């Protein structure tokens, strides 16, 4: 197997509900599949108002009912260096996808020639759950507890789809994919 790490960043608005949930769920699923050691996972938000804070208590409670632990995660904001550090940047919704693309465009103007920013795959996380009727993971922040359970359902489906592609790529290439094209 190749020693190249596949680096995945999950992104939502504030990094206290959806993206930390995606990070924790995907981490657990990858561990169960035996490929976690080949992955670098992180989450962040496009906004900065929750930086340093733990995930929303409702997100933590909902995740805990399915044996996912979000307690150690802390919010951070998307940074231009993330375009060089990650192979995949996966947005929870269209608005955050637009913000990610805008930041990438602004940061690529000042990027060094050896920058990875042009090869990073930027897309929606739910693209990996094609049987879902949603394109976006809805933000549960202003809703009730059921919204957090619905988010978990969507994130589990997308995690399983992405994981299946990683495992298939690993089987086909003798290790995790080194380039975003392996997912497409």
Task: Describe the protein.
It is built from five helices and four strands. The chain is an alpha/beta fold and 184 residues long. It has a single domain, classed as Response regulator (Rossmann fold, 3-Layer(aba) Sandwich). The chain starts with 5 loop residues before the first strand and ends in an 11-residue tail after the last helix. The relative contact order is 0.21. Residues 176-184 have low confidence and may be disordered.
Mind sketching the topology for me?
Layout: E1 6-12, H1 18-33, E2 39-45, H2 57-64, H3 82-85, E3 88-91, H4 94-108, E4 121-124, H5 145-173
Parallel strand pairs: 1-2, 1-3, 3-4
Structure at a glance:
This protein is of the alpha/beta class. Helix content is 39%, strand content 12%. The chain has one domain: 3-Layer(aba) Sandwich (Rossmann fold).
* Helix-strand pattern: EHEHHEHEH
Q: CATH H-level name... which superfamily?
A: Response regulator
Total strands = 4
Number of helices: 5
Radius of gyration: 16 Å
Low-confidence stretches: 176-184
CATH fold type? Rossmann fold
Q: What structural class results from the helix and strand content?
A: alpha/beta
Number of domains: 1
- What is the overall silhouette? globular
Q: What quaternary form is this?
A: single chain
Describe the main β-sheet briefly: 4 strands, parallel
Helix content: 25-40%
The order of strands across the largest sheet is 2-1-3-4
Instruction: Report, as a whole number of angstroms, the end-to-end distance.
Output: 21 Å
The appropriate CATH architecture is 3-Layer(aba) Sandwich
What is the strand content?
A: 5-15%
Average pLDDT value? 89
Please identify the top-level CATH class: Alpha Beta
